[in-house]
Amino acid sequence: MRKIIISFCILFAALSLQAQSVNGIRIDGGNTPILVYLGGNQISLPTTTCFVANLKSGYYTVEVYATRFTRPGERVWKGERLYNERVYFKGNSVMEIMVNGRDEMRPDNRPGRPEHGGHRPVYDRYDRVMNKQLFQAFFDNVKNEPFEKDRIALINAALASSDFTADQCLQLVKFYAFDNERMKIMKMIYPRIVDKEAFFMVINSLTFSSNKKKMYDFVKEYSEH
């Protein structure tokens, strides 16, 4: 009788879980231990799979770093950033993110170093950048939006699926007349700039030296995370 009751409880729990609406973002690192950050906040310890449940619909910045499993009391190692995307979550499903992990990564044994003989996947950092014609169409749409909130929504939509060059960002910020407006756009787009080494041109479009310093501080802080 006890076995029957236990079996019934297990079955009831399983059915209850199945009946609940589960939604969230699942990040899979394959065989590579990973650390997951959501909106700049660390949300996991070293793991190979992380599920963030019951999120509201909206945009989320997901960052994934290579790591290694630690012993109790050992400091968590934060290695190479493997994934950095601003994604849109619908709020009523499970979004799957598969991270291109690096097997057997260690702090002193990163792929791509000449002395270790590994290699990184070959890719073109400009693959996700809008071509000239598409960017012009996008820019025209931004300029034609009469309300600022709609312009921001349009830029956010583009950031969800495209990267930008420093020159494209410069064209966008020059549409705005005041430093505070330009800085807002810079901070939105900077994480998706493919040629960050050229971003100084965008910062130099600001009028006041104090604001230029603020942006350089923002870039420095971003690069340190």
Description of the molecule:
This protein is of the alpha+beta class. The protein has two domains: about 80 residues, no CATH class; about 100 residues, no CATH class. The strands form two sheets. A four-stranded antiparallel β-sheet has the order 3-2-5-6, with no helix packed on it. Helix 2 packs antiparallel against helix 3 and helix 4 runs antiparallel to helix 5. The N and C termini lie far apart (about 60 Å). It holds the Pfam family DUF4476. Keywords: Signal.
Count of discrete structural domains: 2
DSSP, total strands: 7
- What's the number of helices? 7
User: Could you name the ranges where pLDDT drops below 50 across 5 or more consecutive residues?
Assistant: 2-20, 102-123
Shape: globular
Strand arrangement within the widest β-sheet reads 3-2-5-6
Keywords: Signal
InterPro entries: DUF4476 (IPR028011)
Protein name: DUF4476 domain-containing protein
